[in-house]
Write a structure and sequence with these properties.
The chain is an alpha+beta fold and about 290 residues long. The chain is built from 7 helices and 10 strands. α4 crosses α7 and α6 (about 180-190) crosses α7. The longest helix has 22 residues, at about 205-225. Bound molecules: zinc ion.
Length: about 290
């Protein structure tokens, strides 16, 4: 499932492929992928989507923005808000090639077509005015975890709760961009047990976690750049320290990685580096010998 790093790769790729180029046409095999709001429900389909998208023909791409897990593809004073859902991604194909599970295609004046490919159909495109969609991009979301990283006290203030720290990190209204994988990995880097109540963390733990979040996101980005994104859930290489590694040795201490369920989601942690203690032990967020650091 896409989290901030995959959406940032998507943003950079779309910008590289389309900035300055004009839209030459639109392909719409699945009108349900064009929605009134950023939603995972095909029932939120925008009526008359074909005609609305046809209004983009002749417009030039003026850039691509991102906030958390959403992107905004700008075409002058109009834009497309992009929501990748569970399995969505944007790929580049020759104009005459329709990829499997291609939902919406934007044909460019260089003979390429950029496609939303989405087997599960939770992803979507929301057309609208730039002003309206710029406001919608970050509405209800906390600061972007990569572009506007918080310091320890700032993160503590946004996560003031007695609920488990990992569950809070995944709530987009607190910090935007972290999902199940990035939250687990950042907590491993910071040496904090995922189930620990946020109210139990001390100032040193908050400082480590605040540092670990952008370090972790940058590490995943560095691993993902340059390729068409393949999610771990689709059989891609697993670049992570603990995620999906139950029973394997912790890259920092060698203890067996533990799998638990927290807030209904599978979570992975190291029982040694991430002790259940109220005040976690001091660890480095950039452990020596682990390549993604
Ligand atoms: Zn460990």
């Amino acid at each position: 499932m896409p989290e901030l790093p995959e959406v940032e790769v998507c943003r950079r790729q779309l910008a590289a492929w389309s900035e300055g180029r004009a839209v030459a046409g639109v392909r719409l095999p699945d009108p349900g992928a064009v929605r009134r709001v950023a939603s995972s429900r095909p029932s939120d389909a925008l009526p008359g989507a074909d005609a609305v998208l046809a209004g983009f023909v002749g417009r030039r791409c003026t850039g691509v923005d991102r906030h958390g897990k959403r992107a905004l593809w700008r075409f002058g004073d109009r834009a497309l808000l992009l929501h990748l859902g569970m399995t969505g991604k944007w790929v580049r194909r020759r104009a005459d090639e329709v990829p499997r599970h291609g939902r919406v295609g934007v044909v460019l004046d260089d003979g390429s077509t950029l496609w939303l490919v989405d087997p599960r159909r939770f992803g979507c495109v929301v057309p609208g005015s730039l002003a309206e969609l710029s406001a919608a991009l970050g509405a209800g979301h906390g600061p972007d975890a990569l572009d506007a990283p918080l310091d320890g006290p700032g993160l503590a203030a946004r996560c003031a709760s007695g609920r488990p720290i990992k569950v809070l990190l995944m709530e987009q209204g607190r910090v935007a961009g972290l999902g199940n994988i990035q939250a687990a990995e950042a907590l491993w880097r910071a040496g904090i047990a995922p189930q620990l109540p946020a109210s139990a963390l001390d100032a040193a733990a908050w400082a480590r976690l605040a540092e670990a979040i952008p370090v972790q996101l940058e590490a995943t980005l560095a691993d993902t750049l340059g390729d068409e994104v393949v999610y771990v859930s689709e059989g891609g290489d697993n670049p992570f320290a603990v995620y999906g590694r139950e029973g394997e040795p912790c890259p920092r201490c060698g203890a067996a990685i533990r799998k638990t369920v927290l807030g209904g989601r599978a979570t992975f942690d190291c029982p040694v580096c991430q002790p259940d203690a109220v005040t976690p032990a001091e660890v480095s967020v950039k452990p020596a010998g682990f390549r993604a650091s």
